[in-house]
Amino acid sequence: MNKVTDLTLDGDVAVITLNSPPVNALSAPVRDGLFDAFTAAVNDPAAKAIVLLCDGRTFIAGADISEFGKGPSGRALQDVQALMENSPKPVVAAIHGTALGGGFEVALTAHYRVAVPSAKVGLPEVKLGLLPGAGGTQRLPRLVGPEVALQYLTSGDFINSDVALKSGLVDELVEEGKLREGAVAFARKLVAEGRPLKKVRDLQDKVEAARGKPEIFADFRKANARRFRGFDAPEANIKCVEAAVNLPFAEGMKEERRLFEGLMTGSQSAAQRYIFFAERQAAKIPDVPEDTPVLPVRKVGVIGAGTMGGGISMNFLSAGIPVTIVEMQKEALDRGVAIMRKNYENTAKKGRLTQADVEKRMGLLTPSLDLNDLADCDMVIEAVYENMDIKKEVFAKLDGIVKQGAILASNTSYLDVNEIASATKRPEWVIGTHFFSPANVMKLLEIVRGDKTAKDVIATVMKLSKKIGKVPVLVGVCHGFVGNRMLAQRQREANKLVLEGAMPWDIDRVLYDFGFPMGPFAMSDLAGLDIGWSKDKSSSSTLREVLCEMDRRGQKNGRGFYDYDEKRNATPSAEVEKIILDFAKKQGIERRKISDEEILERCIYPMINEGAKILEEGKAIRGSDVDIVWINGYGWPVYRGGPMFFGDLIGADKVLAKMKEFQQKHGDDFKPSALLEKVAAEGKKLHQL
Ligand code: TC6
Fold it and tell me: Which residue windows are transmembrane per the record (predicted)?
């Protein structure tokens, strides 16, 4: 036995306690320790039963992801599982926290499982582009049936203990805080009652019942095709459940191994595992140490009850933090509050909230028409119109109203936070918080650090964002920060490509096939082509202006780059095609055939290059932070790991060569960044900078 496992006798029950912080992941020392502890417990004549439990915050949270992709070392997990399953004495897994992935697969080889009410179990491997490769795909369907197993395996959702109890994933719940005593008592009862050594692998009825019913799988694939689009792992998980139904256990295990190895060596899982760690890394700020004091935020003020202000407020209400929301006009305030209520009620209708939850959240909201009501807030977020003069005016007023020691945040997508801060006498308390629309749904929060923003303000806003369910990324002041700055590159090229020879739907198709939820033109139609456009100032100088002049305003009036039917289904528009051809002709552009490959490279490579420029200028802390922005805020497909990771997959040298080629043909929009040149020359990786 090694340091991570401890074996003691509690009367006639052997208790194996695992202690490997932070989450008891199944690293080589843990596997070795478990193997030795189970060997000793099985061989100890004084032990009549064995309990496995964990110290610290959780039961085993899975394989040690940081070991993946490295060479084998230590005992195989299967050896530990075989010892447990074949033990001549009952083995009980005692679960608290989260029993996940390989951790839950270990629990599934115990003869029985007990849990405290707050525990959760699950097989979230699909989220890492994997499948449970330690028998999870073969045992789960035997316990809960293939239909439920398909749901769990392809969603990776955590399962609450009450549901786990009902479906037989755990056998008994024990009192919160008394897991050890409860589990030992349960084990003793098994011995006293002579209960059988239940092996999940031997259960047959549920898989047999599904045999000869291929429609179970066909229907499931069809119903989820949209959700699984582009991902390899869901299909591999489904195939494993098919194997569980159609093959004997040992054969199913072989199929599971084969499919697991395919995923493990592929680029999708590498990308998804990278993103798992990158997201956690983004929370770490080199010059703001973990122990930087955090300010208490008990009450938040939001200025503006429009789409952004309302969405931002909902985040705090949902986390139980009271919000005072201020608008200038009563109608706008009432409308904003009504929309928030409606959003919550829609969630309640879908069964994801109770009406009591809705009332509780809305009860935390204080609508107001007076900025003075923000005086005692711990943090105020301004979400007014994106205009520097207006924002500065608001901040100057706030400076005179809000108590000292409160954080003053601006929800801005482009503007200079230093200039906004200069409107106050306390720039160290000012910070940017760029929420993404819909702000109550989108995970990303770009947190903009001004030159003078204090460290405890940064630490507080980073921690607070996690509390409200966001993925925070700290960025520096520059036009459009990380996300919009890179988006501008893609948009510019998409617009140019349309004039040079591609159609909007060609570009949208290529980017959709790459994995984005929609292309830039479908996106523009959704947002509205006439945002910021006015008839009297329109000069027919961009395609977008011409479309607006022809009353093609986007989805909202059924005509934008596409034509829309009543159900908002889009079809390419012959009228738009003609407008484009005329427009290009007027500009003297000779159109040519543009390949899908060129569309992708022209749209994506300048983004990678811009990401490198952002890093070069120190506007993002690390390459992986750039990727986290794009995954969580702009629909970049997670299985492609973000623009920096993708650039490395292509090879920085290849991206550089293409940029140079495009620069020759199309000018300095493609000028390579010095950092891209350096990375390519030194054979480094952008996502590891
Ligand atoms: C699998 O099991 C495959 C099996 C196939 C057969 C072999 N490994 O998220 P937190 C670290 S696949 C290594 O901030 P929370 C994490 O990086 C795995 N490290 O905490 C962080 O480190 P830092 C299936 C891990 O309380 C620290 O622990 N399992 C692992 O918000 C704390 O993490 C999963 O996918 C790991 N498996 O949430 C579960 N897990 O402090 C993945 C965590 O240095 N884990 N770390 O930054 C989670 O979902 C969550 O971490 C949590 C705890 C719910 C367990």
Answer: none
For residue 99, list its beta bridge partners: 121
Determine the distance separating the centroid of ligand 1 and the alpha carbon of 63, expressed in angstroms.
8
Contact status, residue 269 vs residue 233, Cβ threshold 8 Å: yes
Going by C-beta distance under 8 Å and a sequence separation of 6 or more, which residues neighbour residue 185?
A: 174
| Region label for 581, one of left (φ > 0), alpha (ψ between -120 and 50) or beta (otherwise) | alpha
Q: What is the mean pLDDT of residues 280-290?
A: 94
Which ligand 1 atom is the nearest neighbour of the CA of 277? 17
ipTM for this model: 0.96
The residues annotated with a catalytic role in the active site are 105, 125
367 residue type, one letter = P
State residue 50's pLDDT score: 98
Q: Is the CB of 100 under 6 A from ligand 1?
A: yes
Q: Where does the pLDDT of residue 35 fall: very low under 50, low under 70, confident under 90, or very high at 90 and above? A: very high
Q: Where do we find the tokens 């694939």?
A: 221
- Tokens 């996300």 sit at which residue? 483
pLDDT digit string (tens) for 164-177?
A: 999 999 999 999 99
Q: What is the pLDDT of residue 531?
A: 84
Q: Which residue's alpha carbon is nearest to atom 42 within ligand 1?
A: 61
Mutate to test the pocket of ligand 1, among 4, 18, 20, 23 (most ligand atoms within 8 A of CB): 23
* Residue to mutate (ligand 1; options 20, 64, 65, 261; most atoms within 8 A of CB): 65
The answer to whether the beta carbons of residues 128 and 108 sit under 8 Å apart is no
CA distance 519 to 510: 8
- The average pLDDT across 315-338 equals 96
CB of 259 closer than 6 angstroms to any ligand 1 atom: no
What count of other Cβ atoms lies within 10 Å of the Cβ of residue 290?
Answer: 8
What is the C-alpha separation between 509 and 503, in angstroms, rounded? 10
> Which H or E run contains 54?
strand 49-54
Ligand 1 centre distance from Cα of residue 169 (Å): 21
In short, whether 22's Cβ falls inside 6 Å of ligand 1 is: yes
Q: Is the pLDDT of residue 533 over 90?
A: no
End-to-end distance of the chain based on CA atoms, in angstroms? 40
Q: Is the CB of 280 under 6 A from ligand 1?
A: yes
CB of 648 closer than 8 Å to CB of 685:
yes
Q: Which atom of ligand 1 is nearest to the CA of 64?
A: 8
Q: Which tens digits make up the pLDDT trace of 577-626? A: 999 999 999 999 999 999 999 999 999 999 999 999 999 999 999 999 99
- pTM score, two decimals? 0.92
Contact 494, 520 (CB under 8 A): yes
Ligand 1 atom closest to residue 66's alpha carbon, by position in its atom list:
13
Residue pointed to by tokens 């395919």: 262
CA–CA–CA angle 595, 599, 604 (5° rounding) = 150
**What value does the mean pLDDT take over residues 418-429?**
96
Predicted local distance difference test score (pLDDT) of residue 385? 87
